[in-house]
Amino acid sequence: MAVVRVDPVRPDPEDLARAAAVLRRGGLVAFPTETVYGLGANALSAEAVRRIFEVKGRPPSNPLIVHVADVEAAKRLVAAWPPEAEALARVHWPGPLTLVLPRKPEVPDIVTAGLDTVAVRVPAHPVALALIRAADLPIAAPSANVASRISPTTALHVEKAFGDRVELILDGGPTDVGIESTVVDLSGAEPVLLRPGVLGAEQLERDLGGIPLARTARTERPRSPGQLTRHYAPRAELLLFEGPTTADAVAAARRAADAGRRVGGLLLRPLEAPFTRVVLMPDAPATYARRLYAALHELDDAGCDLILAEAVPEEPGWAAVRDRLHRAASGGPLLDGC
Ligand code: TXA
Ligand code: MG
User: Fold this and answer.
1) 134 Cα: distance to centroid of ligand 2 (angstroms)
2) Are the beta carbons of 280 and 266 closer than 8 angstroms?
3) Does any ligand 1 atom lie closer than 6 A to the CB of residue 166?
4) For residues 48 and 42, is the Cβ–Cβ distance under 8 A?
């Protein structure tokens, strides 16, 4: 495995040519996008894509996002391009938005997990875009983490997760957005939000001219297969506490520390408790999101076996961060059982 450092804005064409050659011969390349690092393979080769599932330990029932350079390339993979797709792609591509649309037969079954839809996205990262163009291929890429572990926001996170099982890692520095793209399903009668992201549902509804986005929980449609409840999880047990339960959090930290456990804090405000390691988080959603996965990796690396995480505000702007925290939490929103 090689880690190749590239300038995040003007990557060296020779480095890109080398990565593109790996993809073209069926290998895996990890690369930065504006959200998180992706683990990429040639989306048109079932053999190459199979390696992604093997290396990640991803269940074959969980389909992948195909990354393309522009709307024209997306249209080559989908069987329909409704006005809603045009409206959202025009405003948000390149960007942290994934659209689920009816697929063309050319997309291998393994990419879509046998579904009749395919997820497509144009990433807003110069390295990702240049790689897609250099390879001249659509690139299937899930987040470059072992299945149901924390997504990577640095090349080091990827290296630690996969070591030699990935041919090449393009290191373009830490990612900007920090959590995965918003996923919207446009394949049915009504648009459905399958995964919240920093690009909020309210914004997308405005861009759709006021058409409401159904939230997955409120629809009859099957949930996005990747939305397993325990996802994005650190190795440590993570417990969420709300502000008014601060005293409980302190007590829980004491009990855990007394029992010899290493306790981490993921906090918006300092808290007097026997923490092994504390990460004080920014109190705005965009900067919190950028920092979140690196903070969880850091607490894991510090050997914490319990993480006490302060809940974030119940406001629409925090929806995506709240979603990821709840998925990372193993014990639900209170502190029982620590
Ligand atoms: O920001 C991102 O989206 C990153 C970067 C690398 O682009 N990728 C990413 O991929 O988060 P992944 O595989 O970790 O998450 C893809 C999500 C999963 O929840 C999956 O179930 C869903 O998209 N998905 C993919 N294809 C789908 C389809 N045809 N129908 C419904 N959901 C789909
Ligand atoms: Mg993922």
Assistant:
1) 25
2) no
3) no
4) yes
Sign of CA dihedral 196, 198, 199, 205: positive
Ligand 2 centre to CA of 335 (Å) is: 27
Question: Which ligand 1 atom is the nearest neighbour of the CA of 118?
Answer: 29
Q: What is the pLDDT of residue 85?
A: 98
Parallel/antiparallel/unpaired status of strands 168-171 and 277-280: unpaired
* Residue 264 half-sphere exposure toward CB, CA atoms < 13 A: 24
Determine the residue of 183, 221, 227 to mutate for testing ligand 1's pocket, defined as the one with the most ligand atoms within 8 A of the Cβ atom. Answer: 183
Ligand 1 pocket, residue 195 CB under 6 Å: yes
pLDDT of residue 331: 47
Least Cα distance to 184 among 207, 168, 167, 161 occurs for 207
**CA 335 – ligand 1 centroid, Å:** 31
Write the residue with the smallest CA distance to atom 15 of ligand 1: 142
Relative to beta strand 168-171, strand 139-140 is unpaired
Predicted pLDDT of residue 335: 31
The pTM score is 0.93
Low-confidence residues of the chain: pLDDT under 50: 218-222, 228, 331-338
* Three-class SS state of 184: strand
